[in-house]
Amino acid sequence: MSSAEETENIKTVFHYQYSFVISKIIFSASQLGVFDLLRESGELLSSVTVAERLNTSLIGMQTLLRACVGLKVLKVEWKDGKGDHSFPKSAESLFRYTNESWTLYGKEVVSSFDLSGFQLIYNLDGNNVGLAKELISKYPNCTVKLCDIPEIVEKSKKYSSFSDDSRISFHEGDCFKDPIPEADLYILSKVMYNWSDEKCIQLLTKLFMACKPGGGVLLVEPTVDEDISGSLPAHLYCILMLLYSEGKTRKASEHHTLFSTAGFKDIQFKKGNVFDVILAIK
User: Fold this and answer.
1) Is residue 72 predicted with pLDDT exceeding 60?
2) On the CB side of 239, how many CA atoms lie within 13 Å of its CA?
3) How far apart are CA 260 and CA 253, in angstroms?
């Protein structure tokens, strides 16, 4: 690989990492209720007031609010050295961008394997409207349900737009606690690296039991190369996993072991530019 190609790859990696961090900032603030509080209050609120009303640490809230101001999803007005915050209506476009950021690389994902045989697809990521749109665009005979816990589904509905296409809908539920609806294909996009091996096997086993014969699971996330040298995206994500979850990025062979343990037999792997794709068939 030439130095120019290496430089371009590094630029691509950091572009996606930057987008990933932005989405985490926005969804963290959303899930904590920051935007709803500021929108419904009808007045400017200080970081002290926001932290008190949402029962969070002051330092953590100040850091989060500053990041949101930097991203221009919040406004700040300064008076006597104190900043008061508000939520501008124009910021909703950035929510839509982060909800639909999968359009940046969704075409590559949906083209990794021939998915035309799968009619009913469940994506266990309620924020992933962009990938759903790419799926119905390439495979017009399929329908996609975005599944997630109720609060994620609520936020995604509020800030997503897909022209009321009846082929895309939402389903509320906890994939670890609630029954898994029957489907032809389940998509795990940036899910398994959040969890330990034991939790991953638990989830994959549930999907195997719910999956129709001939159906399967499509896993989308960065993987570590067997020699680890060409896996910068996966290594960066692994560091992020250390900060806020019990998970880790894995080698393709490690994913193969998890799928096999859950019962899947036909397991195929495709290398992508940043996110790799595994298709496991029952």
Assistant:
1) yes
2) 7
3) 10
Q: Are 34 and 54 in contact (CB under 8 A)?
A: yes
The answer to whether the CB of 173 falls within 8 A of the CB of 124 is no
Cite the beta strand spans of the chain per DSSP E.
45-46, 75-79, 82-86, 120-123, 143-148, 168-172, 183-189, 211-221, 266-270, 276-281
What pLDDT, in 10s, does the model give residues 178-216?
Answer: 999 999 999 998 888 888 999 999 999 999 999 988 999
Q: Identify whether the C-beta of residue 278 lies closer than 8 Å to the C-beta of residue 267.
A: yes
Read off the pLDDT of residues 94-113 as tens digits, 9 standing for 90 and up.
555 555 555 557 888 999 99
User: Is the pLDDT reported for residue 280 higher than 80?
Assistant: yes
Determine the residue type at 186: Y
Our measurement of the distance from residue 222's CA atom to the centroid of its chain's CA atoms, rounded to an integer in Å, reads 12
3-class secondary structure, 9: helix
106: tokens are 């969704």
Largest Cα separation within the chain, whole Å, is 67
CA dist list (Å): 100 to 14, 130, 160, 222: 18, 4, 8, 19
161 confidence band (pLDDT: 50, 70, 90): low
- Closest Cα to residue 22, out of 88, 52, 87, 67? 67
- β partners of residue 185: 121, 216
